[in-house]
């Protein structure tokens, strides 16, 4: 396996208590964002041991249509955690988004987005806003069923299943119920 381990733990004594995490720096500005993120985590005292994985543009160029190397999947299975930067999906046919590939392979069907107003510090029309948006993350346009009808027309099918709808509704309901009254 071709991974690079970098310790961000403050000292060697804490090494036994570090949490292993896969790191995918990403493409474009991704590596810069990842370096800054790891500096912040280090300064905050996060006890993590990082393992770099290859995903994205370079992996696509090596002929892997998913954009995720086999070694990366091995590390993801071992760590169970992934911190990733922005990842480029090449334009043109035959390429799947790494984000969608990861979501589907790992069963990450729920996109959970908290939204809260920070009034009076940040002016807003809704100073009492405190809500969570739960969005389905694998079906609909993420199904990736697309084809070219003509040189000028592309078609994308939106597939939504009963099972997928029930699963996301159940998740949102349980999420709300677990937080009721908090």
UniProtKB/TrEMBL annotation:
GO terms for molecular function: isocitrate dehydrogenase (NAD+) activity. Transmembrane segments: none annotated. Residues 20-182 form the Isopropylmalate dehydrogenase-like domain. It comes from the Bacteria. InterPro entries: IsoPropMal-DH-like_dom (IPR024084). Belongs to the isocitrate and isopropylmalate dehydrogenases family. This is Isocitrate/isopropylmalate dehydrogenase.
């Amino acid at each position: 396996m071709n991974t690079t381990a970098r310790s961000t733990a403050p000292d060697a004594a804490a090494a036994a208590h570090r949490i292993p995490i896969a790191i995918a720096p990403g493409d474009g500005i991704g590596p810069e964002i990842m370096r800054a993120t790891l500096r912040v985590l280090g300064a905050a005292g996060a006890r993590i041991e990082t393992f770099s994985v290859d995903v994205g543009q370079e992996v696509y160029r090596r002929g892997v249509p998913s954009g995720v190397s086999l070694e990366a999947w091995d590390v993801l299975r071992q760590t169970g955690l992934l911190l990733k930067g922005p990842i480029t999906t090449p334009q043109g046919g035959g390429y799947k988004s790494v984000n969608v590939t990861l979501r589907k392979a790992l069963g990450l069907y729920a996109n959970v987005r908290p939204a809260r107003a920070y009034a009076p510090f940040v002016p807003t029309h809704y100073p009492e806003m405190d809500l969570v948006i739960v969005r389905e993350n694998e079906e609909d346009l993420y199904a990736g069923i697309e084809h070219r009808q003509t040189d000028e027309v592309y078609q994308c099918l939106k597939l939504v299943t009963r099972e997928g709808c029930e699963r996301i509704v159940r998740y949102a309901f349980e999420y709300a119920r677990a937080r009721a009254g908090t």
